[in-house]
Amino acid sequence: MATSDPRYVCQECGHEAHKWMGKCAGCGAWNTLVREEAPEDVEAQVPDLTSNAQNNNGTSDYGAPERLTEVTMEGDARLHTGIEELDRVMGGGIMQGSFSLIAGDPGIGKSTLMTELAGYLPASDILYVTGEESKRQVKLRAQRLGIDSENLYLLAETNVQQIADAVDEVGPDLLVVDSIQSIYRPDLSSAPGSVSQVRESTASLLKLTKEQEFSTFLVGHVTKKGTIAGPRVLEHMVDTVLYFEGDQHHAYRILRSVKNRFGAANEIGVFQMREDGLHEVPNPSELFLSERGYGVSGSTVVCSLEGTRPILVEIQALVTPTSYNTPQRTVTGFPSQRLQMLLAVLEKRSGLAFSDYDVFVNVAGGVTLDEPAVDLGVAMAAASSFRDIPADTGSVLIGEVGLGGEIRTVSQIEPRLKEAAKLGFDRAVVPENNLDRIAGDYDLDVTGVGKLKGVVDMVL
Ligand code: TYD
Ligand code: MG
Fold first, then answer.
1. Best CA proximity match to 444, nearest among 405, 392, 373, 406
2. Closest ligand 1 atom, CA of 179?
3. How confident is the model over 122-134, as pLDDT tens digits?
4. CATH number of 287-459
5. Atom 13 in ligand 1: which residue has the minimum CA distance?
């Protein structure tokens, strides 16, 4: 199988070609193919599952077939970090032997979160490999965070082999590699950060993790286009993919699981970045509504389900006469195509003509929403600003808007109502067809609606 032919690897998606092409046949990106040497020993790049059959403690995870009822769950312990927001996102703690990727923009707080882990886990040995900063820099950060743990080992290293040696020496419960883009395998000629290096280094670390049954966090930087270098390749190799999101200008940081083999995906944890590190936000709805304007037009409150967690968020819209030939549509935190669609439906089904107006929509707090259940709130915010009539401030709006102007059913209505009642709202406007799925009794009025037009008249 070994080959010395050159290969060209797309730095966006990892697609391989035998000759250079301007456009990647895998993902369609332009100018992303880079020549990389094939590894000498091709076998080595595939995690060798058979060697796991005889791992350290002689137990087998891959060997002979076993009946489901006979598979033991021993050793499937979860490490509770004490950082509630992180534990939730991980599906209730860090699974022993799990291999996770935490990705995000530079400067978002990945290293901070990973360093803080050490403060929360005084009983676990943590090996923190830093490929980007010096040990002193990490120590400075730890001091700032008030962490002075005996059990935190620092290693400034980028060579996978050296990292493996350090793992043997320390025998950690948790390994943090910050960042995977800085790590390399000396037997490959391509540069650190290239798809081959990122992929092969990850494969080696994965093998190490699974064999020795500690847990690993890889830190990965997201590139400008919003993907991790060597992205898709990495995402399917790891057990858990966490994205750390947020906007540099806001203090909020959202940790979101986009993939989790040990829990629900799309679960979020909310943090606030302060002088002395990340602080958990146990009730995000309160935070996202804290700066809400009352008595102004263009503001509504929606309820978005993030993983298993309902979150109330304010939507703001501003509709002003345009001075351009093509009116502007500007959105932050919501898909712009969806806004275009909602404006078209409002125009056709409710007679609000936006064609001479610029429309700005903003999801407060720097949150990104892409759940259809927030449609109704976004449409009503636009309608409210258009008519310059404030929307009812005591109502939460829940519902997907269809092209016919119909309000469509949403999933999981009950947790949403519960959250709205908890935060003191006195009315929830929900899809008519959802009414018979509501069994519980909530401390708020639930109004069912069937058509967009009806809601415009009701809320404004
Ligand atoms: P960092 O964790 O280094 O980001 P990443 O590893 O994702 O690149 O955090 C960087 C930013 O966070 C930096 O601009 C400083 C800020 N910060 C605080 O505001 N408070 C703190 O306690 C720490 C450690 C960092
Ligand atoms: Mg960092």
1. 392
2. 6
3. 889 999 999 999 9
4. 3.30.230.10
5. 107
